[in-house]
Design a protein that fits this description.
Strand order of the largest sheet: 1-2
Shape: globular
Number of strands: 2
Structural class: mainly alpha
Number of helices: 19
Order of helices and strands: HHHHHHHHHHEEHHHHHHHHH
Oligomer: single chain
Amino acid sequence: MSADVLSTLVLVAIFAIGMWRPVNMGAVALVAAFLLGTTYFGMESGEIIAGFPGSLFVTLVGVTFLFALARANGTVDWLVKAAVGFVRGRVILIPWVLFTLAALITGIGAISAATNAILVPIGMALAQQYRINPMLIGLSILNGTNAGGFSPIAVYYTIVDGALDKSGVHVGAGGIFVATFLFNLVLNLAAFTLFGGWKLRGRRELAPEDTQLEGDAPGGSGGSVSVLTATRGRTRADVTTLVTLTLLVALVVGAVWFDLDVGFLALTAAVLLVIFFPGQAKDAASGIAWNVVLLIGGIVTYVTMLQTVGVVDSLGKAVAGIDQPLLAGFLMLLVGAVVSAFASTNAMFGVLVPLAIPFVVAGDMSAFGITAALCVAASAVDASPFSTGGALVVANAEESKRDATFRSLMTWGMSMIAVAPLTAALVFLLPSL
């Protein structure tokens, strides 16, 4: 069996095992890299582990540690309550406030799973309180998360940019961010229209300062929790919040304007917060997304091993053998969408971006066109109920509407498998050929 075929089959097996059993795909990928590398390619273990993305490790740990601190000290709650306070009873604005919040939180460096975990329960509570279709609220958050997911300091973009840099390809961060943001904005406008957003026009309910939703969480776990308390007094930032916000702004300025490493900036901000406010940092380290670190580290290590032995280049040449670059590109987008709907979007970026590099080097596609297309095709399907965000939407929906929400989310997510790659190919890929 050729190296190309065997490596591809092993990669498929990694994703299959990750979906079949509750095991981190990154751990499976590390095992696969060790076994395949040592037994088939004759590599030393040191050569294999050299492909582990150390820079990405620092970024993921630093950003998620800082974000865990911001969540623990109330800064994230302050941002949520302050933004929702702007609604002032205008129900039609609630989905767009949540969309904007999701884009902002993810855009400043939070992983998508963390953003969804924070906003979805609150959003579903608002859907119940204001009698809004839970699909509209859920999709507004998920689309907003993707809209901010490709900012220059966001985790999604960091993964994509890291994969491009390894191949010596550069794509402007600003262009990718604008393209993906606009795509998700239009996508959310479609969801807003399909799920009754315009019917909310003119409706005014209880003003947020009079609203307090307490009791069982919408997911129905039975624990008494405060889902939303949006009073004017509680939107006032305390010293901890002001310091955290200042550090977040400093991180953005340092990363964007001074081109400093976002991972080390985030770690610096997190360490300063722990020094200044040690009492609020007791459990913050547990908020580091170690599962994501393992997932991305394992997948990238496996793909890097394949790049080292020339398998990725060989696969790229095989796909490039298709006479029509547009068709070849569309097939890559379709594969990315299918797998991302059931597995990790982060992992798919680590796999697909290197496979697209040969097309860029050969001049068949522009770096911007294929990168933007891959970004939207692999992330738009995150609304599948099998993804973390989609599952959160279903779990936090009203119990009487949970089955209907699951079916609607399934229909939407599966339709995105076809719609997102096709649209991305037409909008970004076709003009670049």
